[in-house]
Structure formats: C-alpha cells, structure tokens
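Can you give me the bound-state structure? Components:
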Amino acid sequence: MTDGQHLERRMDWFRQRCKRAGLACTHQRQVIYRVLAASESHPSPESVYERVRMEIPSISVATIYKSIRTFMDQGLLQQVNPLHEAARLDANLEPHHHLVCTACKSVEDLPAELIEAPRPVRPLPNGFRAREFHIEVLGLCARCAGKG
Amino acid sequence: MTDGQHLERRMDWFRQRCKRAGLACTHQRQVIYRVLAASESHPSPESVYERVRMEIPSISVATIYKSIRTFMDQGLLQQVNPLHEAARLDANLEPHHHLVCTACKSVEDLPAELIEAPRPVRPLPNGFRAREFHIEVLGLCARCAGKG
DNA sequence: GTAGTTGCAAAAGCTTTGCGCAGTA
DNA sequence: TACTGCGCAAAGCTTTTGCAACTAC
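Here's the bound-state model for the whole set.
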C-alpha cells in the first residue's frame, strides 16, 4: 500500500468517525486532519496553520485551534507534551522519572531505581544519539483516582 | 538529617556554585532557589512567584523568569516539560514513544516494539494508578549530532 | 568603582472566546 | 430549515526584553 492510499484510508476512517460523533465533516476539518495525518514531524498549531493555508488561504488560526481541540476530545489526536501550558520546574538532581496525573496535572518524582531502565531492542532509527531515557508514567494520583 | 538541615546543605552548595560560576549571590536568587529546592510539586514560574512574594513582596515576575533561566543554564534546574513552548501534535494512534532532539526540538516516533516496556520494580509510590508508560528518549538527531 | 542584577512596563508569542455570517446535514 | 462551524477581532495567559536605578563583589 502506498503512502497516498494509506492516507486516503485514514481520511475515510476520519469521515466515519465524524459522522459517528455527529461532527460536521467540513472541508476545513478534512484538510486540517489530512495535514496532521500526513505529517511525521509533530507539528505545532502554527505549523499546521501554515500548511493548511496553502490549500485554504482564507483559513483562520482560530479554526485551527478549535479543530485541534475537537480532534483531541474525540481521541483522533494527542499532544506530545501534555504539560505544555506553563513550564514545570524540577530542582531534583538525582536520576528520576515522573508520575504525571492526567486529571490534576500534578507531577511526582519516581526514583530511577524503582523502575527498570528501558533498553532499545536494536539501535535507534535514523542514527539518533540517545543521551537520556526519561519515563513519564501517565495515570491518576491517589486523590484523583478516589474521586473518579 | 532533618529536611531543614538538608535544605541548608543545598543552599551552601548553591552559594558555592554561584561563586564558581561568577554569579552574584543575591538575596532574590537565594530565596528563589530555596523555594525551588524545598518544593516537591514541580511548580510553575507563577507558583514560584507567589511563594517568593511571601518573603520578598517587591519581587517582580521578570526576576523570577530571569533567575529560572540562569539556573537552568547552570544545570541547577531542569524542566519537566522541555517542549512546553507550543503544543506538539501527534496523530499517530499506534503505541509508540518519542525521540526528542534537545538541540532542534524535533520529535520522531519510536514504535513501541523497538524498546523494552519498562516495569516497576515494586508497586508505584503513594497509590499512583498507572495507565500508560511513555518514554522520551532525549538526545541528538543525526543532523544535530553531525553539526556538534 | 564596575559589572552584573533588579523592577517596571511594554511587547511578543501562544491560545481562547464572542459574535455575526455561511455552509452542512 | 435548523444548527453547527467558520472567520474576524479582541482578550487572556505565559514569557521575554529594554532600560534606569541599584547592589554585590
């Protein structure tokens, strides 16, 4: 299957999901989703905006942001950086990982000894040179688990 | 050793590091660093600002941000979320991790099969309920490694 | 004394919101 | 036709910058 065929399959699937969710399958949303699905570079909203503008010059930034939010609510899209709203500082200089509560956005430290160090099965792709493995455990802290 | 003693040790160490780096050891910087070192909650700059203001009501937000940047440049401080400037979107719905280049901030996908799944050595602390393990491999992409 | 630091205010990103018009179902 | 979604502009956050006054060394 070529990349183009694969992309069109995803677009079909996208249109089905829209229908199922009661979302209007507008030209804008389709172009935005196609840009996202075709991109391998984890673009920022700004970058999506630029690419979509090549096809729909009159598109507005607000539409990009609104669509992104809608797609995330539908589970069609994720963020690489769930804690991107503001910087979160960490003065702990010992090796450690993080327990991130997806409900209240709290972050706890997890000392590195408490979890097995991840090891690549084979060398990393594209000659990537690893310096540090950082594990984010996404889940619910005791407080939020109790509420839910 | 009590927490208070531990904190004072860190403050001594901080003052040494400042001296060694040629940084003025101002009252503001000491209070800001103490707040950071004493905090376990990975505070945002805003939150640091509020706590520092209890001790130095005339402190300005700009000073907080400048100090944070200085501390990070010195390796005294890290960010939990290195990619927090703008949202980075991810339409890949297969299980995968991320290769994050710390130089150019590019992100590549790493299929989950290519790395051993991390396993906690014992149950996670504080009753944290894990839903997903997400590995960020920090390092240099081939392009940036070539430049350096 | 000099260089580096602070506080203020203004500005620069990123993201959200309100509203009237337009396109979808 | 009813209603959802779009584009525009304004506003809200977070973070940075320029500059004059001040402080550590």
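A couple of observations. Chain B has two domains: 3-88, 94-147. The radius of gyration of chain B is 19 Å.
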